[in-house]
Amino acid sequence: MKLRITIHKVVLLAMLATLTPPRGHAAYWAGHKSTRELTRDLDGDGIPDVVDPDIDNDGIPNALDDNIDGGIAKTGPFAGKYIGDHIKNDDPSEEDIDNDGLADDSLAEKDIDGDGKLDDDPAEKDIDGDGRPDDSPAERDIDGDGREDDSPSEDDIDGDGFDDDDVLEHDADGDEIDDSADDDIDGDGKLNDDATELDSDGDGKQNDDPADTDEDGDGISDRLDNDDNNNGIPDIDEANHHPEDGEAEVQADLTRQAAAPSGSTARVTYQLLGTGSAKLALDVRDASVGSYEFLVGGVVRGTLNVAQQSNKTRGTLVFKTADSGSGDLLLNFAVAGEAIVIRQGAINHFVGVGPTPSTTTDTGGVGSNVVTLTRAPGVSNEAEASATIVFGANGAIELQIEAAKLPLGDYTLMIGDAARGTVSLVTTPNGPRGTIVFKTVPVVGELPLNFAAAGQTIALTQGTSTFFFGQLPAAFIP
After folding, report:
1. By the 8 A CB rule, do 113 and 128 touch?
2. Extents of the domains making up the chain
3. Residue 426 DSSP symbol
4. pLDDT per position as a tens digit, 95-109
């Protein structure tokens, strides 16, 4: 028995070496339990709870037990007695489902339900062990930390240690479906395009909150994303799309000419997104049945067919830029301020001027952009790096570079042709990771941003090898 205990202590200490962050990791040590508590052995079988496949020795493996740390022990020193708590895994008051001394929302807790499968393992389909699959509409608290997945206070839905709006979090609900392809990003049982889904990516910020600049949490700013809520419908066709700052939808009613029937109307709608995608729609009603030429800027752009619809007539034309979806005419011409004519033969029926979207923005060029750096050939597909540059009224005021899942060690940060600092990848509960921050007014732990960054090339190197490269924007891209 002594030998058995010694072996498990060795195993436990080895696990703690990988699970426990260094003492400098304040986010861990401020809110988590001591190493001594991690040696707890609820059922007294000599196997610490942190590695015990049946923590309460009730004969039900942790993976199948609806109360992992509470039940009647079948064998061992407490045989026949109820040990542990009476709190089921899915009870909001259960803060340490597997009784291993690590709170369920701890950065160091990598196997919340103690079933032997890490929470980010593709084989782990029920992270909190409550009997409800993580992708079930009935599962409203995937990581079992007592905070519902759509609660504003839940900032790490799957309990993997990455904030839901972290640029490196690509599967917020831990269902093994990348957020860019997930129809329920935050796993709250409501589809992304459900009218009642007010926070698609579960980051605590409502979709129409100006502070939520990445509605679907896919790492692409809404201003640069053609499908903000990832529901498969391009924003340009989304009836309920809420425009970002600087985006616009403007309309103009064309003037009816003598040849057009009294009461007939023609309207053009011009929509422009932050990505540069655009859409032009023509809607003509109560005109005479027939074919008409549609001219913009003196050039025929398409043929409008007006047909009978019940007791009305109607004709429509839709133009889109190449990146806005198919099935419509190509919008590859200027619209704003251009002469618009609808004519039949040589006779004009409607005339007007293309509407001009406002070019002003609330930010005035102030804001932040995230650039995903490109992996160099031969670099692991798991490795990731990004640069965030923040622009103030007078240019760049902050630059942050983050790299993850590269081999441990120091990497030189090149901005332009000069080395500006070192990104050190160290061991974290989520694998190797390193960050470096520059600010025009730095505080402790930050470096001065006293060099030109905007518009410069950027690279992470080690010796003569380049691991990531890219280019920073020259100015804020709204």
Report:
1. yes
2. 248-353, 367-471
3. B
4. 788 888 787 777 677
Sole residue written with tokens 């339900």: 113
Q: What are the start-end ranges of the H helices in 198-336?
A: none
Query: CA 134 to CA 416: how far, in whole Å?
Result: 45
Q: For 207-275, where are the alpha helices, taking DSSP H only?
A: none
Say which residues have a Cβ less than 8 Å from residue 125's Cβ, sequence separation at least 6.
133, 134, 135
Q: Where do we find the tokens 């809404």?
A: 222
Residue 235 has φ and ψ, to the nearest 5°, of: -55, -30
Placement of tokens 């061991």 in the chain:
427
Q: What angle do CA 342, 347, 350 make, to 5 degrees?
A: 30
- β-pairing, 299-309 vs 290-296, is antiparallel
Q: Report which secondary-structure segment, H or E, holds 343.
A: strand 339-344
Token pair 């806005």 is at which residue? 324
The number of beta carbons lying within 10 Å of the beta carbon of residue 164 is 24
- Identical topology for domains 248-353 and 367-471: yes
How far, in Å, CA of 177 to CA of 209, rounded? 26
Whole-angstrom distance, CA of residue 337 vs CA of residue 12:
72
Residues in the chain: 478
Q: What is the DSSP string of 283-350?
A: EEESPPSEEEEEEETTEEEEEEEEEEETTEEEEEEEEE-GGG-SSSEE--S--TT-EEEEEETTEEEE
Neighbours of 167 (CB within 10 A): 21
Strands 447-448 and 433-439: parallel
Residues in the chain predicted with pLDDT less than 70, given as ranges, are 1-38, 107, 143-145, 149, 161, 164-168, 186-187, 199-205, 207-224, 226-232, 235-236, 238-247, 274-276, 322-327, 358-365, 393, 478
Tell me if residue 436 falls in helix, strand or coil: strand
CATH of domain 248-353: 2.60.40.200
What gap in Å lies between CA 185 and CA 170, rounded to an integer? 10
pLDDT at 11: 40
Can you tell me whether residue 268 is helix, strand or coil?
strand
Phi, psi of 462 (to 5 degrees): -145, 110
Cα 153 to Cα 350: distance, rounded to the nearest angstrom? 55
Using CA atoms, how far residue 246 sits from 9, 52, 224, 363, in Å, is 60, 56, 12, 9
pLDDT of residue 13: 38
* Amino acid identity for residue 76 in this structure: G
The CATH number of 367-471 is 2.60.40
Q: Which residue reads 């910020």 in tokens?
A: 205
- What are 419's two structure tokens? 């080395």
CA distances from 11 to 8, 19, 115, 386 (A): 5, 12, 17, 36
